[in-house]
Amino acid sequence: MKAALAAGYFGSIKSQLTTGEYDFVASARSYFAPFFVLTIVPFVVVLPFALRIGLNATTLPTDFVAIIGVFIVLFFISVYLLYATPYLVVLRDTSLLEAIRGSVSFAVRGGPYLSYFLGYGGFVLFISVFASAFVVTVPVIGLVGGIIGGGVLGLAMNITTMRFVADIDPESPDIGSWDNPEPGVAQIGLGDRS
């Protein structure tokens, strides 16, 4: 279910940016396989470690904190290396392996990719502090506001990331520049209203 929703979501963002229209179901069908693998692989990788820790909770090794620290570092390295992968799958309309190669290539080069990744992460961390405080301390209104605000902000950030990846990737379709959205038509109706 998660893979189908993610495939439809990312595919729809790309379609909206490139054509001004989208078909969620068609995107979900078209990109389901790579998003299924992106969803299942982390689960399959983490499950044995989680089971081992859970089943041996009373006899954990003395260096358990160090082991967890190493896994946290490996997690962040993996996220950095694979950050552009779902965007490249839909932008290039390519296989998962080609998208992973492209994402790792951007990550190794650093530059704008590294700056964007760090800026994105810093922004999410900053916003999370205030959003969490609001959602927790203002019972019903905070929860509703957090769901709506988080959804809108998440969509805006994914659209921005899709445009960013398209900008730095020569193999992605032209979705317009930041100053002039043509041929990307995501901002239809937002132009000159005189």
TrEMBL record:
The chain crosses the membrane at residues 31-51, 63-83, 123-156. Keywords: Membrane, Transmembrane, Transmembrane helix. It comes from the Archaea. This is DUF4013 domain-containing protein. It comes from Haloferax marinisediminis.
